[in-house]
Amino acid sequence: MTEATSATPAPDALADVLADAPFARLVATDDGDAVAAAGLLARALRAVGTPFQVRVSRDPVPDAGDDAVAVTIGADRGPHAIPGLGRPASTDAFAIARALGVDPDPVVALAGVVAAGSVPGTDGSGDALEAAEHTDRVRRRPGVALPTVDLADGLAASMLVRTSYSGDSEAARAALADLGLPADLDDDAHRRLASLVAVDVADAEGASTRAASAVERALRPYATVGDAAPFETVGGYADVLDALAREAPGTGVALALDSDPGDELRAAALDAWRSHGLAAHRALDDATIGRYDGCLVARVALAGGDRSEEDGDAAPDAAAVLPTVARLVRDFRSPEPVAVAVDEAAGRLAAAATGGGRAAGGATAEPIGLGDACRSAASEVGGDGWGTADRGGIAVGTADEADRIEEREATDGDITGALAALREAL
Q: Which superkingdom heads the taxonomic lineage of this protein's source (predicted)?
């Protein structure tokens, strides 16, 4: 399915459609921005008494066949879409909710903005930031955007940074011990923490020149005030939503929908975030990296990989974790505009691109149509491809658990062929 390029509808226009809808079906891409946007819309629909359904899909197609209004979030498909192209979907969802006469949660909107790779107050999020600050929901401070009070736990699992201690709580704890931070962090302590992380990101083995700018969205965070949100910072909230969108989408939707998440939901969300982040960083630790013209490829082994007792018995889900690995490689390791994470045993790959590729003379090119490139490459090997303008994936030879070992042997060449076709398409 080729991505459309229609303009984003005006918030008032979509609000009018939703106001008259007998039922609304919201389908979001599997990322934190789209899940936050879906939560904002769903809350607004609940407030005005419109029944709704929310689901998350790696390649969303709007439901049809009845009188319901279908809205696609994170992809430009169907007559009603919030594509998230050029600005976060959460900013449009915030405006649509207001047009419905509802006061949307600005903290959820800002979490979606950060999850989209943007900064609160930019890319159309000024209204959400103003609302959050006016109601004393957030406060800008020095430091690092983490969802937890436990700094070592947060730094080890955070997917907003990539350091030598990412994926290793004990190593993070040792780095913090060397810093000698007080138990109660003041602004000076937060600044020292931010300096440590910024330097460690830039000095990490294999760090790209892009890493120094990528870490910026994790620094000088907006801290949530009082009971404004279930996590310590807006950026930490974003990190959790992004992980949940792939690891536990039902929990992600529940979190974005709940105006006052309880301890049980918060704990479930943090558990999923932690296991997802640790798995992604550890996979990248053991990756084999290859650089090609236009892309950097990280070969990892998630399917059937060993895990320590602290992480549980189950191997990481390659379908969930590979996109995060690809994004980490893109942001912190790749000198090329595209990063690809491949798990041959799982017969899967995930790709993430910067906003634009390379043009003649080194100028910035138009954004890469990565989803379309993945679909094209997958078709050459009989696989399944999906994605949006700046991220995508391919799966070949999927099988039931009983047939997985035999199927792996048959799919190694297929995913390698898919990778070769993708590189050619790029």
A: Archaea
Q: Phi then psi for 255, rounded to 5 degrees?
A: -65, -45
Its CATH class, for the domain covering 286-425, is alpha beta
Dihedral angle, C-alpha 383, 74, 223, 161, nearest 10 °: 30
pLDDT in tens, 344-358: 999 999 999 997 433
Which residue ranges make up each domain of the chain? 140-277, 286-425
Q: Which residues contact 197 (CB under 8 A, 6 or more apart)?
A: 144, 155, 161, 163, 215, 218, 219
Q: Which two tokens stand for residue 213?
A: 């700018």
Task: Tell me the one-letter amino acid at 146.
Answer: L
Phi, psi of 418 (to 5 degrees): -65, -40
Strand order in the sheet with 52-57: 52-57, 24-29, 69-73, 81-82
The answer to whether residues 115 and 33 touch, using CB atoms and an 8 Å cutoff, is yes
pLDDT of residue 426: 86
Mean pLDDT of the chain: 89
Which residues contact residue 117 at a Cβ distance below 8 angstroms, ignoring those fewer than 6 apart?
A: 217
Per-residue pLDDT of 145-186, as tens digits, reads 999 999 999 999 999 999 999 999 999 999 999 999 999 999
> Among 373, 166, 387, which residue's Cα sits nearest to residue 287?
166
Whether the Cβ atoms of residue 251 and residue 244 lie closer than 8 Å to each other: yes
Residue 186 to residues 175, 181, 182, Cα–Cα distance (Å) = 19, 9, 8
